[in-house]
Amino acid sequence: MIGTHRLLQDDVKFKDLGLLIIDEEHRFGVRAKEKIRTVKKDVDTIYLSATPIPRTLSMALSGFKDISVIRTPPEGRLETKTYVSVYSEDVIRRAIDFELSRNGQVFYLFNRIDGIEEKAKQLKSIFPSANIEIAHGKLKPKQIEKRLIDFIQKRIDILVSTSIVETGIDIPSANTLIVERADLFGLAQLYHLRGRIGRGNIQAYCYLLLPEKITENAHKRIDAVLRFTRPGSGLKISMEDMRIRGAGNILGVEQSGYLKAVGYEMYIKLLQEVFQEETGSEEKTPVIQVDLDSYIPESFIKDPSERMNLYMIVSKADVPEIEQIKEYLTRFHAGVPEAVLVYLDVEKLKKAAKNMGFKKIQISKR
């Protein structure tokens, strides 16, 4: 059975549910996802998403869920060129002029229903010969469907819409996206919106328009969108989203938050210890207290997903494997920070101490 949120209603019954696939996982709340899983105990579940929410990604990285990543983009897919600008009619005019001159189409994101018609009229005054229509959630379903079909069939040049076009629309001839007030969109949302263009082998352009002043978190989101532009960057976007918003509450319904209080590595360590204690799946890891910096600095590995990947590899490695990692880093990276070397030595000591039955080791500088 394939369905929408309608499958969550109490009157929907399953004869023998064997596999549950939740597509676009980031669009469902925790209660919704867990409710459908109660239909049958221990049902096998696959979560699909280009940008999993921080809570889901955190659970995958901590071992609560298995994770599989498809990194290879479709053949021929080009990287979308992304630009940031203070709102400017001149930028809008040049961007749309260029797209229409190559017989293409434009998505114009205006995420406020109040005023969307005025925005369409404003664009019509600039481009009187263009066919411009609007799309938003208050239109009747048949109206939305007709306008999307007209857009797909190139009867519309510029579609002024809210974020309802975020997913599920594949139009190879639409290769310019303009997002007004991009600072008000979430990081994953901006990534998905940008994914509406560049669906073929034609160079696509995304313009993020901002007011003069934006918040610090908005700065971080826009910066991440500019850094991760390659097709298949969803995992990196999700890692950055988790870093900005927090990892969420594993036992509650919060899908983000709490991360800044203790840091991601400590948060995962605490979760794993509780998980192991409750399930009895593994002996408790010895506590190693050392009066030295012991971590992987951002200045050494800037990419958050690569840095997290190294943490995960080291956590699962044995002593000889950690030594091999250390040799590799010192051979191929000039000037490995002392904090990294201490971190690797501490991890080796932790593995050895566990095998020898130690519960706690304290090391001081003296």
What does this structure look like?
The protein is an alpha/beta fold and 366 residues long. Helices cover 41% and strands 13% of the residues. It is built from 13 helices and ten strands. It has helices at 30-37, 54-61, 89-101, 116-126, 141-152, 187-194, 216-227, 234-245, 259-262, 264-279, 304-316, 319-332, 338-356; strands spanning 19-22, 44-47, 81-86, 105-109, 132-135, 158-161, 174-180, 205-210, 287-290, 360-363. The strands form three sheets. A six-stranded parallel beta sheet has the order 3-8-7-4-6-5, sandwiched between helices. It has a two-stranded parallel ribbon with strand order 1-2. Helix 12 packs antiparallel against helix 13. It is globular, with a radius of gyration of 25 Å. The protein starts with 18 loop residues before the first strand and ends with a strand.
Short note summarizing the structure:
The chain is 41% helix and 13% strand. The chain contains 13 helices and 10 strands. The strands form 3 sheets. It has a 6-stranded parallel beta sheet with strand order 3-8-7-4-6-5, with helices on both faces. A two-stranded parallel ribbon has the order 1-2. The protein has a two-stranded parallel ribbon with strand order 9-10.
Strand order of the largest sheet: 3-8-7-4-6-5
Helix and strand succession?
EHEHEHEHEHEEHEHHHHEHHHE
- The average pLDDT is 80
Number of domains: 3
Task: Evaluate the radius of gyration.
Answer: 25 Å
The major beta sheet can be summarized as:
6 strands, parallel
At CATH level 3, the topology of the largest domain is: Rossmann fold
Tally of alpha and pi helices: 13
> CATH H level of the largest domain: which superfamily?
P-loop containing nucleotide triphosphate hydrolases
Helical fraction equals 40-55%
Helix/strand/pairing category: alpha/beta
Shape: globular
> Are there runs of 5+ residues with pLDDT below 50, and where?
250-256, 258-262
CATH architecture of the largest domain: 3-Layer(aba) Sandwich
Beta-strand residue percentage: 5-15%
Number of beta strands: 10
